[in-house]
Amino acid sequence: MEKNDKDPDLHHDDDHNNDKSKEEEKGDTVSDDVDVDKKENVDVSNAETDHVDPGDNAEKVVNSPLGQEDAPPEIPQTIESLSEELDQLLTSLSLHKEEQKDVTEEEKGEDGNYFQIPQFVGKFLDLFEDKLSKHDTVDPKTTWYQDPEEVSSLLEAVDRVSKLMELLLNTKSCLDHHESLINHAGSIQQRAMAFLEDEFRVLLEESVIKEPAVVTEDQQDHHNDSQDQDNVNNVPEGDDEKIEYPGYSEEMVVLLRKIVEKMKGAGYGCECKEAYLVGRRNILMRTLKQDCEFEKVSIDEVQKMSWGELEREIPIWNKTVKDCSSLFFPGELKLAEKIFPGDEGSLFNIVTHGLAIQFLGFAEAVAMTKRSTEKLFKILDIYETLRDGFPAIEELFTEELRSELRSEVTSARSRLGETAINIFSDLENSIKSDSSKTPVPGGAVHPLTRYTMNYLKYSCEYKDTLEQVFKSHSKMEEEESTERAFANQLMRIMDLLDGNMEAKSKLYKDIPLSCIFMMNNGRYIVQKIKGSAEIYEVMGDTWCRKRSSELRTYHKNYQRETWGKLLGFLGHEGLMHNNKIVKPNLKERFKSFNATFDEIHKTQTTWVVNDEQLQSELRVSITAVMIPAYRAFMARFGQYLDPGRQTEKYVKYQPEDIEDLIDQLFEGNTSSSSTATAKRRT
């Protein structure tokens, strides 16, 4: 170590032949150097000089004129053995600093009331530097924290060096006379701070016992059953505490806080905070990717995504925001408060605020994508997450950022709400514009009816949210729209759908088939409404009863148009003359009945009634009308046909055959005609 001739501390006797009085005088000054009240300006070998080897001192004692051969060997100096002396020196130096505040330059004299620094200070610094070097060369480096005594020794040494530097730099006499010592101590302090900063970063990153996945309620029981076994693998032996996110043991949090205190005390608080911010940001994003599969995407990237990609991203976003609201963000706030007491949320704000803004940017970006009806439900999912999950996130931030976030959330919800309302308007327009001229084969339920009703049924699972959306974001001016905006919207869609189906029923030239078409679609609508408590609540019982009444009207019209004509063949008119049966007319009546029934059977077996209840109701009602009439007609007039060939020719069906064939109607079976014929021949 270099010497400075201008530094009074650097002058010490190299001549070992000085007389005894000088040696005793020097010894007196070493022992008295901490007693500043008696004598401060003393001549003692400085810590910045070459340190005297303890062995040399022992040899000098043995070879002394007094021949003190029995003197005990000098005990090697350690950080621990020198710490008490250094603490006393720091106390004395602190008192000296305070006393010099009110002393004038004239009173200080030529030497400026010089304060002597003993040699052991340099030895302490060298030993501390050796300790840092030892830990720097250990692989893995971060092992010292596992020994509580070593933790205490190292951090207390850091504290003493920091206090020494603070006193040296703020005491004028030290600045004037101990430049080399200040430089040496400052260099060691910087190395200590670099060491602690690296260790802080490594401990922050690698000492997480477990970055826990979010445990849902339905997984809790299983989690509790397996927790003991998991703890064997994840929690240090003897540690029974439950580790929650972010997953540091209490002992590790205490150690991290101590490192922060030491670095802050040395004036390196900013470097420590920066290491914390970088580390926690990385850990949080890694955790979100592992537990939620979340990765940041920009607004431009969102708007370039296909709907299929967005459908996968939105549930991930929802889960991430909810988990951040309930677990990750509260965990980050608690951790920052524990490691940096008195921080008042500023570190938490920096770690999480950007992510919260990114969440909101994603929501707005989705709202700005091209509208389509299939996007409604995902948009409502996002809306609900912002409504239900984000208030808890807002409350974690400081007032200024809380206000900013609330404003951003309001903006995002407004965009999403307006988009949802516009999607409903698009649904209205799609019903209005559906002017296809091709009738659905067999009078089956129209695809538009299926799509609309399934869409509305699913929409009503979000009834409360949609009512809030229409109430808060609708631009309609009608007073009733504020309270029943969604219900009114639903009614309009139902009226539009009803009108559209009515128009499409006219595409069928066969009136009975148009009735079947209206019954199919009407029954489908009613069943969907009755099957959903939410949509039934909106539409109401009155509406359902009215629609059921309309269905009965269509049923009657169908029966009259189809089977009324057939029943006419079973009447008595024109079959008797002068109280006698007119056989030619009777034969013609049977032939006409058979031909008409065959045609009805052939046609209506291709018609479609998918609703089993409606299908059964139609068949039962037809049977109830036709079978008694046909049975009575056969009983009254069948006997007038000659047995044998004549009966087989004109009496094609027995009542039981008619009943069986009626049960084949409305199955949409194009091959049913041949089947019916084969059945009739048996």
From TrEMBL:
It comes from Brassica oleracea. The keyword Protein transport applies. This is Exocyst subunit Exo70 family protein. Residues 1-29, 36-59 have a biased composition (Basic and acidic residues). Residues 317-663 form the Exocyst complex subunit Exo70 C-terminal domain. GO terms for biological process: exocytosis; protein transport. Residues 1-76, 213-243 are annotated as: Disordered. Belongs to the EXO70 family. SUPFAM superfamilies: Cullin repeat-like. Component of the exocyst complex. Keywords: Exocytosis, Protein transport, Transport. GO terms for cellular component: exocyst. GO terms for molecular function: phosphatidylinositol-4,5-bisphosphate binding.
